[in-house]
Amino acid sequence: MHLRSLAVFGAFGLVSCASQGGAPSLPSIFEGPPQSAVEALNRYYDTIDPTTLPQAPAGVSLPLNETLTSILLASCNDEELDSPTLAQLAREDADLFLMIGDNVYGDRDGRDYANNQPELDELRESFEELATRPEFQAVRAKFPMMVAWDDHDYGTNDGGRDFPFKQYAELIHETFWGLVDDEVGQYPGTYYERTFGPEGQRVQVIVLDTRFFRSDLTPTDDYGAEGKERYMPAPEGSYQDMLGSAQWTWLQNRLQDEAELRFIVSSVQVMPTVHGWESWDKLPAERERLFELVRESDAGGVVFLSGDRHTGFIYEEQGVLPYEANELTASSLNVAFAEESPEMDPRQVGAPFPPENYGEVEIDWQGRQLSLLLKNSEGETVRENVIAFDDIGVK
């Protein structure tokens, strides 16, 4: 048995000893017996040296003082497979790249969670593999990056706040992406924000954490049925939480910051309501809370960016924000499941695009408009929505 395995086993043993009324011999870093197995685990995780964990190749500094005109975004990248679409993305010219979830598939075998393996071997191995991929090395060398996580780089499919190993998963994620010594590494969850550009051309990128704090979803009553594939919206009056109280307060404060354009990155989709997969509409009170927060903050220029769905989408809707609401979903890089999809939400702009894809946001400051683009594996634009600044409340 590895030394690390022994340490985890010992953490669980502390709980057992305490529950039998004994006075366990605790390491000096412990100030008393842990009150639960999860607390014991987290105490052990606190002793792990981040330098022993996988790390991405050195990246490019964020261009905080520069005007952004092009932002790339993508999700769903299986590190065990070649990714020609990611290689194509690396040939683009852009100011920023957002990798917004399922950046690795660290739970594909199911062994970490289902078989109760708190060391998260598979997740760590997945990040190690990603770091060696030439197409990933190319984007790290070329683009400044911001990142979000989703379930497969969180450590468990469709997981939320009850994932017992989430503190370690967070440490693995933040260490790999160079965030562990940043402010995001100092609090639970992986949400953070950066603002780019001079006054009059400020772009705020808000990366949400839709995993660490999220309450359970409501299982479908008709598994696999169209529109009820996996989950249903939570019943009215039920407890719902997507972001957790601290992150909600943080988001409220960030929407008070000065910016002309604001891109809110959510690993799961925000606007659609017609499918039964994970999305904000499965917690309808939280979805409305998000819209209400934007309304009450008087924050102009909000656009949602998402991934997760293994299909690309563009959405547009009137009435939920003080101005036109828009969302671009870019998914996936190399885990496509179909060539066509019949899905059609009333908010959709054009048909879905299931083949491998990535997204781009083009910002035309002089023309006072932005374009939401979906591009195929050859870099060709296959879906587009051009949005006037005036239509999204940009002053």
Describe what this molecule looks like in 3D.
The protein is an alpha/beta fold and 395 residues long. The protein has two domains: 1-47, no CATH class; 58-392, 4-Layer Sandwich (Purple Acid Phosphatase, chain A, domain 2). Helix content is 24%, strand content 18%. It contains ten helices and 14 strands. The protein has helices at 3-19, 37-45, 84-89, 111-114, 121-132, 134-142, 151-154, 166-176, 245-254, 284-297, and strands at 70-74, 96-100, 145-148, 192-196, 203-207, 218-219, 231-232, 261-266, 302-306, 313-317, 325-329, 357-364, 369-376, 381-388. A six-stranded mixed beta sheet has the order 3-2-1-12-13-14. The protein has a six-stranded mixed beta sheet with strand order 4-5-8-9-11-10, with no helix packed on it. Strands 6-7 form a two-stranded antiparallel ribbon. Strand 1 (70-74), helix 3 and strand 2 (96-100) form a beta-alpha-beta unit. Helix 1 runs antiparallel to helix 2 (37-45). The chain is globular, with a radius of gyration of 21 Å.
The main β sheet shows up as: 6 strands, mixed
What is the N-to-C order of secondary-structure elements (H for helix, E for strand)?
A: HHEHEHHHEHHEEEEHEHEEEEEE
Q: What spatial form do the alpha-carbon principal axes imply?
A: globular
Structural class by helix and strand composition: alpha/beta
Q: C-alpha Rg, in Å?
A: 21 Å
- In the CATH hierarchy, the architecture of the largest domain is 4-Layer Sandwich
Task: Write down the domain tally.
Answer: 2
Main sheet: which strands, in order across? 3-2-1-12-13-14
CATH superfamily of the largest domain: Alkaline phosphatase D (PhoD)
Please give the alpha-carbon distance between the first and last residues.
Answer: 62 Å
- Please give the share of residues in helix: 10-25%
CATH top level assignment of the largest domain = Alpha Beta
Beta-strand segment tally: 14
The count of helical stretches stands at 10
Question: What fold name goes in the CATH topology slot of the largest domain?
Answer: Purple Acid Phosphatase, chain A, domain 2
Regions with pLDDT < 50 over 5+ consecutive residues? 1-28
Strand content: 15-25%
Mean pLDDT: 91
